[in-house]
Fold this sequence. Notes:
It is built from 21 helices and 39 strands. It is of the alpha+beta class. Strands 1-2-9-10-11-12-22-18-15-14 form a ten-stranded antiparallel sheet. Strands 7, 8, 13, 19, 20 and 21 form a six-stranded antiparallel sheet that branches. Strands 3-4-5-6 form a four-stranded antiparallel sheet, with helices on one face. A hairpin with a 2-residue loop joins strand 5 and strand 6 (53-54). The longest helix has 23 residues, at 600-622. The protein is globular.
Amino acid sequence: MKDRMWRFTDNCGTFESDCAHRISGLYFPLCNEKIMSSVSPDLHGDIKTGENSFLLTPVSRIDLVDARSSRNFWVYINKDKIWSATGVSKDLRQMEKDKFYLEAGLLWHKITRENKCIGLKAEILSFVPAGNEPVEITQVRVTNVTTRNITFIPTASIPIYARSAANLRDHRHVTSLLQRITLHKFGVIVKPTLVFDESGHRPNKNYYFVLGWDQNFKAPQYLYPTQEMFCGEGGDLEAPLSVLRNLPPGKERIQGKEAMGGLRFRKVTLRPRQSQAYIILAGISDDKREILRAVRQFNRPKKVEAALKITQDFWKKKADSFVLSSGDADFANWFRWVSIQPALRRIFGCSFLPDFDYGKGGRGWRDLWQDCLGLIFSNPAQARKILTNNFSGVRIDGSHATIVGKKPGEFIADRNNLSRVWMDHGVWPLLTTDLYLKETGDFSLLFREAPYFRDQQIFRSRGFDHNWSPAAGNKLKTPSGKVYQGTILEHLLVENLVQFFNVGAHNHVRLEGGDWNDGLDMARDKGESVAFSCMYAYNLGCLAEILLSLGQKKIKIARELKILFTKTDYRNIQAKQKILKKYFEETKSHICGEKFSIDSDLLAKDLLTKSEWMKQYIRKKEWLKQGFFNGYYDNKNERVEGLKNGQIRMTLTAQVFAIMSGVATDEQIKSILENTKKYLWDKRLKGYRLNTDFKEEQHHLGRAFSFVYGDKENGAFFNHMAVMFAYALLKRGYAKEGEEVLDSVYRMSINTPVSKIYPCLPEYFNAEGRGMYSYLTGSASWFMLATRLF
């Protein structure tokens, strides 16, 4: 397509563009296991190792346009010829004369700018090496493109932030007073004295550094260690007086100032077509020896080239682990980017790229399980270990820790210490575990033991155990203080049986703090999720099938779970709630530690009976005369979907999970397909919206409906749900319809004049069709999973 923003140049996902610099908000990920980076076409972005350790100032999407702080490389020829090789300068007339070109691949990024008035071309390569080196490497190669000699003075400039993201608004100046700056032969190293946190200051261990040298490993001639010194009074990062007036560094005090990696190299003369390379390392480490090793490791262009090749091969191998045959070369290349997105989210979490609206970093409970879907295909042995660790985040009341720690099996309750749970969290572990079992046949996983998560929240966050303290640790214990271990099968039973009894006034599972749609967060008391009641019905049936296939007559589970097998009339809401309350009371502070044996066939029969009852109940009660399923009840106990105030209200979520779970019959699926096309399909942008326009805020349902319609969880083209729609259809045998949905997502992604993104699957497309929240979305794993059903 000639009108694309970029085009692929090989079969490895490499692409090129001559107009990316004209697209606002574009960014590209660079990372390894130790460091995370984002880079825009003009080298804005940031570098960090975590929420409390940013080398460059943390940036959001809008900061990529607004902020002056960026990586830059200046060329001074004379007072009338000063050039920013990255295109970030106040001299817009000069920049407009640049010829721009971008080339990028898995995971490396190179921009080229050529300015005939200046007479130079600069190629700027950026990547994070695939090893464990905590550095971003930038190599700048400057070439004389004229027929005459050119003499110039080059200066690399990277502002050093060196602190927590919180300090953008919390004590920004005060934290600059903590900065301790060291002048190194090759650049600037900053080690703040403290990590500033009023809830508990602590000594800082991190070194933040910007180091550089030329191709012959010659150090900079001058260093500008503070922004004040580099910019000069009245200057700024886009017009630094040290460059504009060719000023050497001053002798003012440097400690306790905003730090700067300003590296001025010696004057150089290039003959026609001659080049000179400069290598810049920017990184974070708590070990100074690691910094010195990095200097030795990347001190020559040949070493940088070797590291680049290793990095390219590393990510190519990741992409090759999930091969998809396609007659469409563009789709095959695009899919390579999709296939590495689960790995990117494992490293970046949901929040460490410029679209960081999910908060302070890290992955949540859903992310943990959905990212494992892709790993099961590429590395089942590693997936087994991760799955086992993941179950340590399950509480005995069937709820879950919501934030994943950095170490395997490490969990915390919530990033904001809020008392809340999401009702869908119990669905995902079984879906992922079931895929693992089907792919590997390794049913022994079910009998591995794991602890349960424990904190002050009890009764699914509706109560507090005031006798618990953090000193007791985050593991459920017996009265004797021994950490209790239950099988993974037991954890799965807890997650799904609890939800069978955890029902609201309409006998569907309570919505609590939201389901998959976090925006449905204002119906905690009376809300119900029919959509995910479908999935709990499916899960109970799935557990029954697993039990029957095990070939074991008896299984052992915690004695307290007997309560959840109490016989009752499933139509009796109060009776079900009473059973659940009794179970919560028995497990609120500890678990006895005793286990009982239960007949596998009888347990499977009980689970299957519960599953079938739920499915029949939803079919009977929630199929609307308009020809689709209702998915929710709000905090006023009112049905959300159907005909309201003369307008149709419909959510894609309700239809997806009714189909995926087997609740929807074939006749109902046909009706759903007709109505999703009628009410949710956008004829202009050719994609499925998440919901119809409800036309008013829904304070009794959730914040999502306070968003402008067409964005985020209020009617956007939300790829996670669209891809699961495709998966559900494919799973139920509607191959043509499922493939059409996947194709619509792909077409929206590569329609770059509208989507304005690099090759990837974004979280969603907004009302204009622009891709939002690139790279870090669980829909990538589901897209991979869906393609297995072709």
